Amino acid sequence: MSSLTLLYDAPALWLQIIADGILVGAIFALVAFGMALVWGVMNVINIAQGELVMLGGYVVIYLAKAGMNPVLAVPLAAAVMFAFGWILYRLVIFRIVDKDLFISILATFGLSILIQQLANEIFGANVQSVQSGLGSFIFADGMVAVGKVKVLALAVAIVVGAALFFFLGKSRLGQAIRATSQNARAARILGIDTDRVYALTFAVNAAICGAAGALVAMTWIIHPYLGLTYTLRSFMIVIVAGLGNIAGVLFAGVGLGVAENLAGFVFGAEYQTAFIFALLVVILVIRNLLLRRSRRYLK
Amino acid sequence: MIRILRSPFSQALTALAVAAAFPAAAQQAASADTITLGAAVSLTGKYSTNGKNTQDGYELAVKRINEMGGVKVAGKLHKLKVIYYDDESTSARGAQLVERLIRQDGVQFVLGPYSSGLTKAIAPVTEKYGIPMVEGNGADRDLFTKGYKYLFAVLNTSDYYLRSAIQIAAENTKMAGKDPAKLKVAIAVENDNFSKDVRDGVEEDAKKYGMKIVVDDKLPPELNDMSATLAKVKALKPDILVVSGHAKGATLAVRQVSQAQVYVPMLALTHCDSAQIAEKLGKAAEYATCGSQWDRHLAYKDKWFGSADDYAKRFETEFKYDPPYQAAESTASVLAFVDAFERAGSLDKAKVRDALAATDLMTFYGPIKFDKTGKNIAKSMVLYQVQGGDYKVVAPSKWAEAKIVFPAPPWDQRK
Amino acid sequence: MSARTAALYSATLAAAIAAPWLAPEIVTQLAFLWLMILFALTWDILGGQMGYNSFGNVVFFGIGMYACAVVQRDSGLGYYAALFAGMGLGALLAVATAGLLGPAVLGLRGHYFAIGTLGLGVAAGDLAAAIEYIGAGSGMAPPLYPGEVGASQRFFYFVLMALAMATFAFLRWLYSRRFGLALNAIRDDEDKAEAMGVHTTRYKTVAWCIAAFFLGLAGGPVGSLVGFIDPRELAFAGSTFGVWMVLMAILGGRGTIWGPVIGAAIFHLTQELFWTYLLGWQRVAMGVLIVAIVLFFPQGLIGWLRHTWPQRFAAQEMK
What we know:
Structural class of chain A: mainly alpha
Distance between the termini of chain C: 14 Å
Shape of chain A: globular
Number of strands of chain C: 0
Oligomer: heterotrimer
Order of helices and strands of chain A: HHHHHEEHHHHHHH
Helix content of chain A: over 70%
Strand content of chain A: under 5%
């Protein structure tokens, strides 16, 4: 394993790999916040999560083309996607809220194909990106370079995490959301407009994904078919962290980013994806075995 | 809205309406004075950018030929028409669709799909039915070792994309009084037919000069991040970094190399023009070197389009973007068919096949002459470098507009 | 079996055998129709009868395809011998994989099982794309069928038809035994089934092995029919075949024997029509169709028929 000796010879590489991993992971964590929220409150697994990210990216690309500073466009992308999420809920999602989880997986899978193909027709299949113009931080004599956008991504992830924590914990609306997630029927009896709570939850999720997409457009690339990467990663993160554990999601996201980057480095890029998905299966099986001791299972 | 109006949807609706109104007309593909070609191209899926280029290239050729009156076969003028299907960028679909073109639509002449993988999937089918296929987008060498008789490619095989990059680096090193065998090469290519063949060409030439390959990564096709590979590149400090992964790979490589400030004296890519790296990524793309099948500045001419530059201008007015070489070679594929029809003086597929094999044609895209295996041996690749925000041909020396900058200046010395 | 049912079956059989001569242009599409039926039937063993929604069944299909192609390439046997030996090896390897993974993966329940198997599917495709022995990302090309033009499609049509019919017959028999009841018991309440003395893990694993067996057999002929094996787009095509098998079974009606068959037929036909007439937009139409199926037909066609005309359909449908 020549890659391993390389890590030994040049310890600064560790820093680069881990830094890259943390910052990729932050974006995954952002998307996972949204997924955990929707899953926990509405009992819907949203497979179209990655497509929301993709759309957020396109919003920033078009705003930047119109002459806007892309960094300032991040909150705007979130706002646009908030509206999109609300509409999507009113059109489709409300029908699957009380249904079997598997139904929600399939329905949102259909939505994801639909959004992908519409994006292909409307925006074109060209790979697009935005120049943030922020440059990079350079450490250790140029051995370690970290894009400032990526740091921004981490900051956004932390801020969103904290905001969610306080919003759900302290505000009236947050309490309504929590009440609905615990027992929708009881919440309705107590006068909470659960339909509105669901719409809001889904819209907030879309907004978070939109912000993540904006950051992706500035760091990597946007094209109509990138969604699945983010959907699957965010799903993994939620499974590992569990629902309703905001700090856990952040740490799991960052951990996944680092693991993936290290795997790509050590085994070679061709095994990176296979490694991550094999890891997913292993994590699931192990978690399940641990639970089985007490005759329980994941649910 | 204009986009949507021009989109396949309206075409499909028209097709649907026509099919409903005239079932018989829709069934019979080859009516008296029309020659129908068939093509499965990628309109959706991962190759849809280049698939669109391919379709536009075919369409422009068909339009131009029909404008000029059509194809004269045995004294009679015929119009050209192409039936398209969408292969969704998957090879299973591609093979199925070509069979459908041949068996259900009665197509006798097939134009190639986009990408080597799809061409590989289709070639056995056309071969089996004895249907000539001219293609401009399947460059994998492997295609021409199977003894196919009905496959003709107007382009150079993919191992040639970046051989000249290695060569020019070696020559410049020699001129600077250093040993080219000391150069180190890092390779990161997408895990598919085309890019692996690009890689093999680079490896062969690097070995010839005694260069060492220090990184050899294969990137997954759903590639969205290559920081792990770049970390390796940073540590091993190669002199040449070769990245090949269609338009997506080119964009990603330029962007991440500049963001992580990875310094390599030469960054060698494919698909720069279809990814529009100079236009879209600005300074980050400066000094990137790219292999290409064609360039509008080359001095080729033909009777259909005039010069290469005339072609490019015509293409721009039709489709509102600069023609990447993928479009040019697709247009050239149609021209090769037209030339063969006229020389064969018949629309018999075997006669057309023989006429194709005897092709010796000059086009705006370059000379076309097929060897026994069906690949074009008359044309050579060009190598660009992005200089001052523009693509400048740097090799072969016959066409060079500028001298290559090698080694490229380090990041802190670029403005 | 009543006389009417017997007549129905023989008419279907006769039509199926005559089809390649009646509609020679679309033999490949018809061959794929049998494949889709096989996909939906094998998915339904777990998904419908047992309540375990798998997105990873394509793994077995891919293993079968690659195993067969390797035998065809390396064994040096004649064409037919190599093909059938390859199919056999494919089925064997697929069953072995299911047997090994089963006890661990089938311990997962509900959507965790769904996502775990999805992970398996993606990982398998990427692994296959990294192994040079089977062509890695460049894929593999199985040898060409020796017959004249058009004969290969006919041959593989009959192979796939035979496989789909064998699957149907076997599952019909299986569901009428104690085994079928055990699977239903697991679906209805796994903990209670276990408390009643059903060895749930054993049943679940065997059920998965059965699905793997037929999928592994089908892999080889499909690889040869298409003529080019791409690791992610044909062999381990999780986002197409992997999801379609689920949709087809749901569309027709999961947990029934005829549901998957009907679902596969309708789905395949619709898809071919979309593809011909909605060029470039066929996947948009597909997305709309999927959402519509799931939202408005979650019980499938059979479920809808039973609900609408209970006296006509409910009693007749065999379990």
